[in-house]
Specification:
58 residues
């Protein structure tokens, strides 16, 4: 049996010139995109990749 846990993180967004910047303060990952949706999607991917390499303690 495999148990899946869901963890929620904060996304802080701000605008820099023509880009939206998204940051996850709990993990320290940052990403960007031309729209809020793309910046958040990129942040999610960056955070998932980071957590694969550096998992949170259980």
């Amino acid at each position: 049996m495999r148990i899946t846990m869901t963890k929620f993180f904060t996304a802080v967004l701000h605008k820099e010139n023509d880009l939206c910047v998204a940051e996850c303060p709990e993990i320290g990952t940052v990403s960007q995109g031309p729209t809020i949706e793309e910046a958040v999607a990129n942040l999610k991917e960056a955070t998932e990749l980071y957590l694969e390499e550096f998992p949170l303690p259980v």
